[in-house]
Amino acid sequence: MSASDRDRPVRPHQAHAASFTHNADEYAAVRPGYPPAAVDLLVPSDAHDVLDLAAGTGKLTEPLVARGLHVVAVEPADGMREQLTARLPQVEVHAGTAERIPLPDASVDAVTVAQAWHWFDEPAAAAEIARVLRPGGTLGIVWNDRDEDVPWVSAYDALLHEAAGPQLARGTYPTLGNAFTDVLRTDVRWEHVLAPEDLVRLAGTRSYALVLPPDEREALLERVRTLVTTHPDLAGLDRVPVPYVTRVYTARRR
Ligand SMILES: C[S@@+](CC[C@H](N)C(=O)[O-])C[C@H]1O[C@@H](n2cnc3c(N)ncnc32)[C@H](O)[C@@H]1O
SS3 for the chain, per residue? Predict the structure, then answer.
């Protein structure tokens, strides 16, 4: 993948988006959550009703619920919704997409989108989010990016054909249209500590690996295992601090 390819917004094939449903257990086990400083930014302190859109297995839903917010989750993949309901039985969960949100107009104070905006049809999603938000309500979009300035991270991401960075070009913002204002970006740096084998499992949850034929997938995960056990910065570690730069974008509905 060339540098210019990596900087281009990702508009993935539907098979990649649909792939999440088959690996929801692994996803829930090894994908990172979101640091409290990022959650603080995603939802304003006066919000009450929150939609966690593309909620997946509930990695962001959970800290939102823990803050006492009334959270509704929308997620298209059956396997992800099942994990979410098992984890957070008190949360109202709907099958739906960002382009067709199954909620009434002006029904929430805040919408959160974690690690998923790049799967959306941006104009359609922005219009739907504006519809379900109350005037003055907020949209919070977040990505956990591994810090590719760290050499082993860069090698790991190269194996996965992933830019740790942005599914959006560096320095650009989600396209939200005229319904939104006050668009801001804030970065939060932190580390997610994993066992080396969990770094291999993490690679297996990436959409690139999920859609490979089984033999190619196994070969890829073996290359990741070799990297994780032999890279000079990782060899011999039984816990690996994975450095993240969590990018938070916030905007307000006019
Ligand atoms: C990388 S996961 C993130 C899940 C969760 N928000 C998290 O932080 O762990 C991306 C999620 O987006 C969902 N998704 C894909 N396309 C979508 C769409 N058009 N509308 C809503 N959700 C979508 C997938 O099913 C998947 O659960």
Answer: CCHHHHHCCCCCCHHHHHHHHHHHHHHHHHCCCCCHHHHHHHCCCCCCEEEEECCCCCCCHHHHHHCCCEEEEECCCHHHHHHHHHHCCCCEEECCECCECCCCCCCEEEEEEECCHHHCCHHHHHHHHHHHEEEEEEEEEEEEEECCCCHHHHHHHHHCCCCCCCCCCCCCCCCCCCCEEEEEEEEEEEEEEECHHHHHHHHHCCHHHHCCCHHHHHHHHHHHHHHHHHCCCCCCCCCEEEEEEEEEEEEEEC
pLDDT digits over 16-65, tens only? 555 555 567 787 788 899 999 999 999 999 999 999 999 999 999 999 99
Say if residue 233's pLDDT is above 80: yes
Task: Count CA atoms closer than 13 A to 24's CA, side-chain side.
Answer: 21
In which band, very low, low, confident or very high, does the pLDDT at 108 lie, cut at 50, 70 and 90? very high
- Whole-number Å distance between alpha carbons of 126 and 132: 10
Please name each of the domains of the chain with its CATH number: 3-146+163-193+242-253 (3.40.50.150)
Q: Is the CB of 80 under 6 A from ligand 1?
A: yes
* Closest ligand 1 atom to 54 CA: 22
Q: Work out whether strand 240-253 and strand 133-146 pair parallel, antiparallel, or are unpaired.
A: antiparallel
Question: Best substitution site from 11, 13, 20, 30 to test ligand 1's pocket, by max atoms within 8 Å of Cβ?
Answer: 20
| pLDDT (0 to 100) of residue 160 | 86
